[in-house]
Amino acid sequence: MNLKTHLTAVLNMRMPIAILAIAGCFTLTNASFAQVVVETLPAENLSKSSQQPPDEVFVPRDLDFRVRSQPPSSPKSDRYLVYVNSPNSTQLEQVKQLEPGAFLRQYQGKSVIQAGVFSQQLNATNIAKQLQSQGIATHIINLSTGQEVALQRAISKFYFVVIPAGAEDLPIIERQVKQLPNKVPAIISQRQEPRGSHLRVGPFTERDKAESYNRYLISTGLTKARVYYGR
Predict the structure, then answer these.
(1) Residues of the chain with pLDDT > 70: what percent?
(2) Which long-range contacts (CB under 8 A, 24 or more apart) does 97-100 make?
(3) Which domains does the chain have, with CATH numbers?
(4) Is the pLDDT of residue 155 over 70?
(5) How is the beta sheet containing 103-107 ordered, strand by strand?
(6) For the chain, N or C: smaller number of CB within 10 Å?
(7) Parallel, antiparallel, or unpaired for β 138-142 and 80-84?
(8) With 80 as the cut, is the pLDDT of residue 20 above it?
(9) Could you give the CA distance from residue 227 to residue 19 in angstroms, rounded to a whole number?
(10) Residue 33: what pLDDT?
């Protein structure tokens, strides 16, 4: 067996055993040994060791260049001011019966009664109509635009609780109703029309609420109380 054939057989063993076998059997110079090993290595091993992995090619993804969209901004919500243009203490007390948070304030250089500020135009319109049903001139302003909202004047009907009585007894009944513990957001006023003198409590936008309050007044001894639907 010549040297080249012997080395090829040895190198097919595990590497540490192969090296020991070569070292025990032969005495070679470093240069001679390296030459023999190179010549005896299989061609496929040499080609694998000589090949370098190709450089990785960067392929940009669409996501890398995608501009992140901004979240849509929420539209600015409107706010509606309901006010009364007669800033006297008597009318302020009337408005407070319907809207307890009402107060005097300055608006566009004049004193007014602010009945409330609402985020929904429907709520502002309902309050304004209830005030108008009591003969109180009311205005609605869109605070976002500064424009007045058109309001049809006192055409709606509402529910009221009325207590018929003589004109001389109305002040006593009014005090009695105002002192009751069960308060309602309604205006209490003395009326002569329609159908004679009476104390009127309202307006109520829903019949059930008016009837519920009517039953409450009857339970307190005001047995003449009844529900009335009108302006």
Answers:
(1) 65
(2) 97/185, 97/186, 97/187, 97/188, 98/127, 98/130, 98/131, 98/134, 98/185, 98/186, 98/187, 99/127, 99/185, 100/185
(3) 3-46 (no CATH), 80-148 (3.30.70.1070), 158-230 (3.30.70)
(4) no
(5) 103-107, 110-118, 80-84, 138-142, 147-148
(6) N
(7) antiparallel
(8) no
(9) 115
(10) 43
